[in-house]
From TrEMBL:
Organism ancestry: Eukaryota, Fungi, Dikarya, Ascomycota, Pezizomycotina
Protein name: FAD-binding domain-containing protein
Ranges where the FAD-binding domain occurs: 9-348
Pathway it works in: Secondary metabolite biosynthesis
Domain of life: Eukaryota
One Pfam family this sequence matches: FAD_binding_3
Source organism of the structure: Apiospora saccharicola
Entry keywords, A to Z: FAD, Flavoprotein, Monooxygenase, Oxidoreductase
Length: 435
């Protein structure tokens, strides 16, 4: 049902990544939303994959996201097969995620997923069947400073813009984080792992195998890999694992090849769009000739030193709030960084005048904003801190087994900000009774 176009608050979002774009979609029906992005239109659209799980999908679908539709071609993943370095299958698990959480995990090309989020943030309201106005994205406009109390952002050329709400979604290396969380706030730290990331076309990989007169490895057949996550463990003790899953209607495969940095000779780099060294990737992950050919068929190799962020003392100050990796960066060992970012964005619903602070349905006013942001922080930050603990617990025991120990109730069972607040209030009431 379309709501009235009332453009209540002025919202400025810093960063057009997955968090910023989702936040724009959540807020655009009610407020005037502008995103400032330091990069160009094609920013952050590496061809590699991303897995959006039940917690992300259940939030995005009612917002108009068509993960399995023609545009995105997301692949439902409902099976996990694990192999040792000799290609012996050592685990085959059918995942009942749809029955438990209402949706499968969807494997998607990162660029397809981001394009869909851009659509949700900026398409005409009539196309989405909603009220309000589309968000505006201003590319090539870096934000260099903010005044969280006054609600002012400052750009590289010294000009400024005023806002009622500032959503800081500028990623793991957030420049603005200290202005919200304090100058002493933690900074991201390398965890001692690196990930080579490639998206392989199934057709190109098959061609590479045929040219080498090789039979495909046992796991590289449609009946083995369609709708399946493959976990390929390296030689025992090597601490190397390749995680693979299908994208774009099973026509592409994402490989995240993860190893410990201490055994690598590569130069480290801060950018997660940095090109990786193909030869080094093949040296470390070519324990099987077939795997080597398949990885070698990728047109682009990216490499990223895995990093995470210690818990922050706060995500909010005045009328500014941190979301996404700026608030809670973690390694991809559970494939949850983006999903938690989508959860953060959904929590901004509290700013929509569908539910004001008193539950009267009145419009949220500028003066209400700081208290609403603190309310969001009170449930989002503890959840992200717990998520970080769970993800970090898998770092030391580094095999495919640890990644898929079942933590899905915690991650995929999340049901949005209102349920989280109700849970917190129930906990507080119980604590009061127990005293
Ligand atoms: C190898 C790997 C695999 C992953 N796989 C998964 C997965 O399967 N599932 C999952 O849920 N998560 C996954 N993640 C995590 C996920 O990618 C991140 O959590 C997610 O991208 C964070 O989104 P974000 O919007 O916070 O940050 P980003 O996507 O980094 O976006 C930040 C944006 O802000 C812009 N920006 C930065 N500074 C400024 C500034 N000063 N002014 C204006 N704009 C600025 C940047 O250009 C960028 O566009 C993976 C991560 C890695 C490294």
């Amino acid at each position: 049902m379309a709501i009235q176009n009332n453009q209540n608050l002025k919202v400025l979002i810093v960063g057009s990544g997955l968090a910023g774009l989702t936040a724009a979609r959540v807020l655009r029906e009610h407020h005037a939303v502008t995103i400032y992005e330091r990069g160009g239109v094609a920013v952050a659209t590496g061809g590699q994959g991303i897995m959006i799980a039940g917690n992300g999908n259940r939030i995005l679908t009612p917002l108009g996201y068509e993960g399995e539709g023609a545009r995105v071609g997301g692949v439902p993943i409902h099976r996990l097969r694990m192999f040792d370095d000799k290609n012996h299958q050592i685990q085959d698990t059918v995942m009942d995620l749809k029955a438990r959480f209402g949706t499968d995990i969807l494997g998607q090309k990162r660029s397809d997923f981001r394009d869909e989020l851009v659509r949700l943030a900026t398409a005409p309201s009539a196309e989405l069947g909603i009220g309000g106005e589309p968000a505006t994205v201003v590319y090539n406009q870096a934000v260099v400073g903010i005044d969280p109390e006054e609600g002012v952002v400052t750009f590289g050329d010294g000009t400024t813009a005023a806002a009622d709400v500032i959503v800081v979604a500028d990623g793991i290396h957030s420049r603005l984080r200290p202005l919200v969380a304090g100058e002493g706030a933690p900074k991201p730290q390398k965890t001692g792992h690196l990930a080579y990331r490639v998206a392989v076309s199934v057709e190109a990989a098959n061609r590479a195998l045929a040219e080498a007169n090789m039979k495909p490895p046992v796991w590289w057949r449609p009946e083995m890999f369609n709708n399946t996550t493959l976990v390929l463990n390296g030689p025992p003790g090597s601490c190397r694992v390749a995680m693979a899953y299908p994208l774009r209607r099973n026509t592409y495969f994402n490989f995240s090849c993860i190893m410990e940095t201490r055994v690598s000779s590569r130069r480290t780099t801060e950018s997660w769009h940095a090109d990786g060294d193909r030869d080094e990737m093949l040296e470390y992950f070519g324990w099987d000739e077939g795997l080597k050919r398949i990885l070698g068929s990728a047109t682009e190799v990216k490499c990223w030193d895995l990093q995470d962020l210690d818990p922050l003392p706060t995500w909010t100050k005045g009328r500014a709030i941190l979301i996404g990796d700026a608030a809670h960066a973690m390694t991809p060992m559970q494939g949850q960084g983006a999903n938690l970012s989508i959860e953060d964005a959904e929590a901004l619903r509290l700013l929509n005048n569908e539910h004001d602070a008193q539950g009267t349905g009145a419009k949220v006013r500028r003066e209400d904003v700081p208290a609403i942001l603190r309310r969001i922080d009170s449930v989002r930050r503890p959840r992200a801190d717990r998520a970080l603990e769970l993800v970090r617990a898998t770092h030391g025991r580094f095999t495919g087994h640890s990644k898929y120990e079942d933590k899905s109730d915690f991650f995929m069972g999340y049901s949005g900000i209102y349920a989280a607040l109700a849970e917190k209030e129930k906990g507080a009431a119980k604590h009061g009774e127990d005293k």
